[in-house]
Amino acid sequence: MLKRKITKILEEWKNEENKQCLLIRGARQVGKTFIIEQFCKQNYESYIYINFELSPSLKDIFNGDLDASTLIMKLEVTFPEIEIKPGKTVLFLDEIQSCPNARVALKSFAIDKRIDVIASGSLLGLYYKEITSYPVGYEKIVDMYPLDFEEFLWAVGIKENIILEVKNCFENKKAVDEYILQQLNKQFKMFLIVGGMPRIVDEYVKEKSLGKVMSLQKSMVEDYKLDVVKYAETSIRQKVLNTFDSIPAQLAKKNKKFSYVNILENEKNIGERKYSSSIEWLKNAGIINYCYNLTEPAAPLKSNLRLDCFKIYMRDTGLLMSMYEEGIQKDILNDELYVNEGAILENVCAEEIQTRYNDVMYFERKSQLEVDFVLNIKGRVTAVEVKSGNNTQSKSLKSIINNYKTVSRYIKLEKNTNIYVDNLGIEHYPLFMIMFI
């Protein structure tokens, strides 16, 4: 069983005195159902599970009155073998987006407090128009992502004390033992290839077969496309597929800003009006991350977002890898991380940042200055540069230092390096240390 950080969030939620209903959202196959089921079975005396896609007839429970007493009686009739015990029973509503009334009913359960309720959904953002009344203030929403690099290290057997020691080196800016550094660099390469989808990581840990990994990845990408065909409105279905297929090429450009004209080579009149809804569909399905450009690298960063200028990254780097031509995995293993203009490394960094921050942002000015990521770390605006090749120059960071006093910290992630701080105050770290930022 893969260890996941979200388990701690579930435990903390259970111990809250005046808890809301918990809503876990995330893309399909990130492991929501498995983790929640394990938690429910281990922490409650009785447990009711409803999957609205597998058992659509159970949506009828949520027709009519939605007060808690009525709903609990319906559950008792439907599941007579399960004793509902106040404070000791949990109801798990899986794929709740398929039953809008169940989402409305979360308010009743939260007020009543007799049973705890956990809901999950993978396409929640696509069904917002069908919710008659959102349970604002009565549901706690938590996003679930693929495994991050630290969770991947747990999966492959790296002990937590080793990770903590390396984290201590990061926080104190002292060099890591060279052997440990070498081993973690190797694991990071594997993380780029395998990604963080639980089923694929589990297969890799058990079989160590990259052939099987790549086969599963391609299958998962096709599953995502089938979801588009099944769930997207007819008017945007093909546009969503075109946008999805264009992502690897968009990231392979030197300027990785998302460009509508690069979606299809031979189609005319491509623009925001025609394709913005297709990009939003992919975001709402949990498949992609936005990375917005900033007008200025100054706090508060969110006030400087340019919503019309952004990059798009895949939420799982392993799936992105599978969308490129065959052989790129071999290039990664051979330490040729400069392939595709750093697209892979930028993607994995965006993926790691998204799990820790609400927004992923970058700064670009007139195509002459670009900083890969800008973060607000404990009140300090921080510029982060990701270097995929052997070029050790830091032109963008030097320009930021000289021209933008609003930025007070500078981080460079690169290969073939240990931890050090140069005479400009730029902090240099191995690429995998994005997991500590």
Topology:
Blueprint: H1 6-14, E1 21-25, H2 32-43, E2 46-51, H3 68-78, E3 89-94, H4 100-112, E4 116-121, E5 139-143, H5 149-155, H6 160-172, H7 178-194, H8 198-207, H9 210-231, H10 237-252, H11 272-284, E6 288-294, E7 305-314, H12 317-323, H13 328-333, H14 343-354, E8 361-365, E9 369-371, E10 373-377, E11 380-386, H15 395-403, E12 409-414, E13 420-421, E14 426-430
Parallel strand pairs: 1-4, 1-5, 2-3, 3-4, 6-8, 11-12, 12-14
Antiparallel strand pairs: 6-7, 8-9, 10-11, 13-14
Helix pairs in contact: 7-12, 8-9, 9-10, 9-12, 10-11
- The helix content, as a percent range, equals 40-55%
Rg to the nearest angstrom? 23 Å
**Number of domain units:** 2
List the uncertain runs. Answer: none
User: What structural class is derived from the secondary structure elements?
Assistant: alpha/beta
Describe the protein in words.
There is one protein chain. This protein has 437 residues and is of the alpha/beta class. The protein folds into 2 domains: 6-143, P-loop containing nucleotide triphosphate hydrolases (Rossmann fold); 149-436, no CATH class. The chain contains 15 helices and 14 strands. Helix 7 crosses helix 12 (317-323), helix 8 (198-207) packs antiparallel against helix 9 (210-231) and helix 9 packs antiparallel against helix 10 (237-252).
